[in-house]
Amino acid sequence: MSDQMTENNPANAPAGAGAQNIPSASGNMEVLMDIPVTLSMELGRTRVSIRDLMSFKNGSVVELRKMTDEPMDVLVNGALVARGEAVVIDDRFGIRLTEVVSPMDRVKNL
Predict the structure, then answer these.
(1) How far apart, in whole angstroms, are the C-alpha atoms of residue 106 and residue 30?
(2) Does domain 5-109 have CATH number 2.30.330.10?
(3) Are 84 and 102 in contact (CB under 8 A)?
(4) pLDDT in tens, the chain (110 residues)
(5) DSSP output for the chain
(6) Exposed/middle/buried for 61, CB within 10 Å: 0-12, 13-18, 19+?
(7) Are strands 79-89 and 72-76 parallel, antiparallel or unpaired?
(8) Phi and psi (nearest 5°) for 10?
(9) Residue 95 contacts by C-beta under 8 Å, 6 or more apart in sequence?
(10) Domain range summary for the chain, segments of one domain joined by +
(11) Burial 2-38 (b: 16+ CB within 10 A, else e)
(12) Spatial CA neighbour of 101 closest among 4, 3, 27, 2
């Protein structure tokens, strides 16, 4: 696990607990706390040639570099904020966070 990542157990943390530890140059980050951001979960990546890309059709299978037991990355604007494992919630996908970037590093990366 990298130095930037820490174990996270959402069941033990009060709602908004991470927001309390975010550093602020002005000391007033409260105004920013309600701004919505879009999270992206990255299952994996791979490289393909243009030839292979052009041959894609329904039913094509693309092998990713990530192993099945590796956590997925959680990104905001392309910046890593957490890692976790996929879960199913009713009929939807979700992610159980297993590693979370420190609040200071999250702010720096945004």
Answers:
(1) 16
(2) yes
(3) no
(4) 444 444 444 444 444 455 555 555 555 677 878 888 899 999 899 999 999 999 999 999 999 998 988 999 999 988 999 999 999 999 999 999 999 999 888 878 77
(5) --TTEEE--GGGS-TTGGGGG---SSS--GGGTT----EEEE-------HHHHHT--TT-----SS-TTSPEEEEETTEEEEEEEEEEETTEEEEEEEEEE-HHHHHHH-
(6) exposed
(7) antiparallel
(8) -60, -25
(9) 41, 72, 74, 84, 85, 86, 87
(10) 5-109
(11) eeebeebeeeeeeeeebeeeeeeeeeeeeeeeeeeee
(12) 4
Both tokens of 83, joined, read 């890692």
Task: Judge contact between 54 and 67, C-beta under 8 A.
Answer: no
Identify residue 21 by its one-letter amino acid code: N
Residue 5 β-bridge partners: 101
Return d(Cα 84, Cα 41) in angstroms, integer: 9
Q: What is the CA radius of gyration of the chain?
A: 17
